[in-house]
Amino acid sequence: MPDSVGELGEFGLIGAVTARLPQGPDVLLGPGDDSAVVAAPDGRVVVTTDLLVENRHFRRDWSDAADVGHKAAAQNLSDIEAMGARPTSLVVGLGVPADLPVDWAVGLMAGLGEEASLVGASVVGGDVVRSPLVVVSVTALGSLDGVPPVTRSGARPGDVVAVCGRLGWAEAGYQVLSRGFRTPRAVVEAHRRPAVPYGAGREAAELGATAMCDVSDGLLGDLGHVASASGVSVDVDAASLVVAPQLREVASALGADPLAWVLTGGDDNALVACFPVDVEVPERWTVIGSVSAGSGVTVDGSAYDGAAGHDHFAG
Amino acid sequence: MPDSVGELGEFGLIGAVTARLPQGPDVLLGPGDDSAVVAAPDGRVVVTTDLLVENRHFRRDWSDAADVGHKAAAQNLSDIEAMGARPTSLVVGLGVPADLPVDWAVGLMAGLGEEASLVGASVVGGDVVRSPLVVVSVTALGSLDGVPPVTRSGARPGDVVAVCGRLGWAEAGYQVLSRGFRTPRAVVEAHRRPAVPYGAGREAAELGATAMCDVSDGLLGDLGHVASASGVSVDVDAASLVVAPQLREVASALGADPLAWVLTGGDDNALVACFPVDVEVPERWTVIGSVSAGSGVTVDGSAYDGAAGHDHFAG
After folding, report:
1. Chain centroid to CA B272: how far?
2. Binding positions for Mg(2+) 4 (chains A, B) (predicted)?
3. Region at B27 (left for phi over 0; alpha for psi -120 to 50; beta for the rest)
4. How many angstroms separate the first and last alpha carbons of chain B?
């Protein structure tokens, strides 16, 4: 096999990257035609898309190809989870420089496929084009299987706010990597591959969650979206937030505040949801706050004076 | 409003580009949440994706923002048509340099929305990120409304081959633009905005088309995909191909062969389909060849010695 994607050409590369993609039961027509056909059993399809650009959303010297594939898939699958839906499939647009090793493109697709397979979803199609830098576009589809979608706009005063998944870990990993370190491994790995709490979105929907959001811009930023869409205020109880010993250690070494990472760090793809107060939230969810009449997000009753969420245009 | 997307920021830009996107009847939940929800009335969804990279798939000095939006939408909607499906929705990933005028991004989204509205489809979601050059990722969804998908693999010996839509026009426009001219306007416009024969894909499916393909890589290249997927050979009758006077004029001025543009030019997004011989093809379809046992594509019984299709990695 040629070493670079330029030598292999478009159709050769498409063949190489789609060769071993397993197709799950929701796939009615897989890769290789003008379009794919996927089951949408209840007559609705959930759809979300994200674009990842090299040196902005990932660095090839920080993450290997499979890491980038896992991350690109995970952040889309998480947006499907956040509606209470079950991911069924992904399509991928891949922009590659001519000198990109074929192995890198193949590794990326393998990572995408592996992450998708964690939830039984399949990579059903894509597009490969030449680009001066690596660009990965992922669109995920999902099925609600009869449940109503959980939006950002249904939170009501009196609801409790709960989180499922890790917070602050990806930010800790980013801070470590950006200072030239490669350890501690746990936080670096968290930056490379988010650990999405798969299944928790559907679980929350079935428990009657009133609103839900994927935490990709940071807890306070994403709760701000929920507060704004729902026309409510949200207060976070700082003492209820889990600040893992690993984060404390890294923050201590770097002279940083680990609670700020938990409150504002992005890219962990945790889920945050609002539940009626009488719902007994399952163990993997942690109640971290409450919803009131009003607007905006507070921490322990006050405006938080750290950075509120991260804008992908900043930095 | 700030002049550049860098000044406006991610959330501001998202607001600006999604402000006036009309939502059609298939949209159950539109832009603004983690994901959108779209109707898939027969329990299946058709999905396709394309990635357009500045200076490879479009040039900002050749096409205005609305042109790029129209083209990005059209080439995806055409892939939905080519399955016999009806487009319902698009999601868009947009990579923008900080110095990109806000008007350009807004114009792009307006072009996308206008093209989608030609078929009653809606832009239901997207992602906006910073990128050193403009990147547009479009994913289109469609509904089969109970008809079976028309794939590339069903052509049978004895079928006739028919084409609907223009061929060679986008290539003629490209040749004109690449020599620094801006006229004739008709071919330049064809390069900027393909004229997809909307509705013809469903029409072909209902008439019993055995195979169908969008002509994006060039007629011979795309017929090669059909021949290969179906395990048949296809012969094109050159005399049956329409070579419009406008193409003859441009080719004459440039010393080129207009038939070569018709046979191998890409990006017109015509449809080519195979039909059982007893089907009376509607007037907008032109019978251009036939299917036999064997393999490969010929023109008037012989291998074509021009360039066979275009590889998006070339040039």
Report:
1. 12
2. 34, 48, 79
3. beta
4. 39
Question: Which residues on B lie below 8 Å from A126 (Cβ)?
Answer: 49
Measured between alpha carbons, how far is A305 from A288 in angstroms, rounded to an integer?
19
pLDDT at A31 over 50: yes
Over residues B137-171, the pLDDT tens digits come to 999 999 999 999 999 999 999 999 999 999 999 99
Which chain A residues are within 8 Å of B313, Cβ to Cβ? Answer: 5-6, 9-10, 98, 129-130
Considering only CB atoms, A91 lies closest to which of B47, B89, B130, namely B47
Question: In this structure, are A130 and A11 located in the same domain?
Answer: yes
Q: Are A198 and A286 part of one and the same domain?
A: yes
Compute the distance between CA of residue B231 and CA of residue B209 in angstroms, rounded to an integer: 16
Task: Write out the H or E segment, with its range, that includes residue B28.
Answer: strand B27-29
CA–CA gap between residue A261 and residue A219 (Å, rounded): 9
Q: What is the mean pLDDT of chain B?
A: 94
Q: With respect to residue A173, please indicate whether it lies within any of the assigned structural domains.
A: yes
Burial class for A232, CB neighbours closer than 10 Å (0-12, 13-18, 19+) = buried
Distances A1 to A102, A104, A106, A112, A128 between C-alpha atoms, Å: 8, 13, 12, 22, 18
**Residue A19's CATH number:** 3.30.1330.10
Confidence of residue B181 (pLDDT cuts 50, 70, 90): very high
Q: For an interface test with B, give the residue of A45, A129, A135, A151 to mutate (most B CBs within 10 A).
A: A45
Cis bond upstream, residue A2 (ω within 30): no
Phi, psi torsion values for B228, nearest 5 degrees: -65, -45
Total number of domains constituting chain A:
2
Express each pLDDT in A67-117 by its tens digit: 999 999 999 999 999 999 999 999 999 999 999 999 999 999 999 999 999
Contact state of A149 with B29 under an 8 Å Cβ cutoff: yes
CATH number at residue A224: 3.90.650.10
Facing residue for B6 by CB, picked from A89, A130, A313? A313
Query: What is the least distance, in Å, from the CA of A123 to any CA of chain B?
Result: 11
CB within 8 Å: B98 and A313: yes
Q: Which residue shows structure tokens 């980038």?
A: A68
- Residue A272's DSSP bridge partners are A163, A213
Whether residues B135 and A53 touch (CB distance < 8 A) is answered with yes
Asked if A53 and B127 come within 8 Å (Cβ–Cβ), the reply is no
Residues A36, A23: Cα–Cα separation, whole Å: 11
Q: Is A274 contained in some domain?
A: yes
The pLDDT tens digits for A124-150 are 999 999 999 999 999 999 999 999 999
Are B268 and B173 members of one domain? yes
The H or E element spanning position A263 is helix A258-264
Look up the domain containing A280 and give its range: 160-299
Cβ–Cβ of A35/B46 closer than 8 Å?
Answer: yes
Maximum pairwise Cα distance, chain A: 62
CB pairs under 8 A between A and B: 234
Instruction: Please name the member of B9, B37, B53 whose beta carbon is closest to the beta carbon of A95.
Output: B53
Interface test with A, best of B33, B76, B214 (most A CBs within 10 A): B33
Q: What pLDDT is stored for residue A312 in this prediction? A: 46
Q: What is the DSSP letter of B149?
A: P
One domain, residues B128 and B232: no
